[in-house]
């Protein structure tokens, strides 16, 4: 039976080990969702989606209960996508390969902007060792991600990979190794109410094929509402079924289906214009 959402984002932590310029700092209190709370959420989410994405803000790999979280996802037959800056990738490598729940790991290579030259060298070696193991084991997919604007950084990364693989690499969504992909996308601005008006006509994937759950249990319509501005409810206080039946959620969803933007935050979000192009 087809489930309501293609994916549900779960922010297991809004704490990060880097301060990247492209990731706006959150004004929310630093929070680590416990494995117990994660389990409570999964029991509800699995009725609505087969895929969870450990991502909104924060670095999931630094979570002290990361292994338990993956075990809970696996026990509930959830397929897990992880977005990480990659700094900790080799330190948790054995945990990742031991999990049968992981479907894909997205590594934001543009996080290298936070590192000095020596750290960048160590970082790239670490990421390469990891994707080399992935290519051999073929346990899950890895997507290496870059921003188009970081031309100098991208050239450094491409040069490194070309030397390692002894081949010319063109950035695309085609694999550069078995199970490993390299892609480049446009940087975006995290939406907030202080941004200028974009439009009140259009659509979005929020509420239609995704929702997000913040580390404190707040449910928001998409992974870009990192401040919980459009709070639909809280999973630690009420059931997801109740939240999805509320007028605010239903009005947003109906609005997107009819190309009408309901929420003020969405009217100031430029990211959703990408869906217009498609």
Q: Strand order of the main beta sheet, please?
A: 6-7-5-4-3-2-1-8-9-10
Instruction: Find the structural class using helix and strand composition.
Output: alpha/beta
Shape: globular
Question: Order of helices and strands, N to C?
Answer: EHEHEHEHEHEEEEEHHHH
Main sheet: strands, sense, barrel: 10 strands, mixed
Roughly what fraction of the amino acids lie in strands? 15-25%
Give a written overview of the molecule.
This protein is 31% helix and 17% strand. The protein is built from nine helices and ten strands. Helix 3 links the parallel strand 3 and strand 4. The longest helix has 21 residues, at 117-137. It is globular and about 55 Å long. The relative contact order is 0.14.
Element layout with pairings:
Blueprint: E1 7-10, H1 35-45, E2 51-54, H2 66-75, E3 79-84, H3 93-98, E4 102-108, H4 117-137, E5 141-147, H5 151-165, E6 175-177, E7 180-185, E8 210-213, E9 218-220, E10 233-234, H6 240-243, H7 247-257, H8 264-267, H9 273-277
Helix pairs in contact: 1-2
């Amino acid at each position: 039976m087809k489930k309501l959402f293609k994916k549900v984002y779960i922010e297991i932590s809004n704490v990060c080990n880097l301060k990247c310029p492209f990731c706006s700092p959150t004004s929310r209190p630093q929070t680590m969702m416990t494995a117990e709370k994660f389990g409570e959420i999964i029991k509800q989410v699995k009725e609505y989606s087969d895929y969870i994405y450990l991502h909104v803000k924060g670095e999931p790999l630094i979570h002290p209960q990361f292994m338990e979280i993956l075990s809970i996802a696996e026990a509930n037959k959830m397929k897990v996508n992880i977005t990480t800056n990659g700094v900790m990738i080799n330190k948790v490598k054995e945990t990742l390969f031991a999990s049968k729940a992981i479907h894909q790991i997205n590594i934001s290579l543009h996080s290298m902007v936070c590192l000095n030259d020596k750290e960048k060298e160590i970082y790239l070696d670490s990421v390469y060792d990891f994707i080399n193991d992935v290519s051999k084991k073929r346990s899950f997919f890895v997507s290496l991600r870059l921003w188009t604007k970081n031309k100098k950084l991208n050239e450094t990364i491409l040069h490194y990979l070309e030397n390692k693989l002894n081949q010319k690499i063109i950035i695309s969504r085609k694999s550069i190794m078995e199970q490993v992909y390299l892609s480049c996308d446009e940087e975006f601005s995290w939406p907030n109410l202080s941004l200028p008006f974009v439009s009140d006509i259009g659509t979005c994937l929020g509420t239609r094929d995704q929702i997000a759950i913040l580390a404190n249990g707040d449910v928001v319509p998409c992974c870009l509402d990192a401040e919980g501005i459009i709070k639909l409810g809280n999973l630690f206080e009420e059931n997801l079924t109740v939240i999805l039946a509320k007028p605010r959620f239903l009005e947003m969803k109906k609005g997107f289906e009819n190309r009408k933007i309901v929420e003020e935050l969405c009217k100031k979000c430029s990211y959703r214009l990408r869906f217009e192009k498609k």
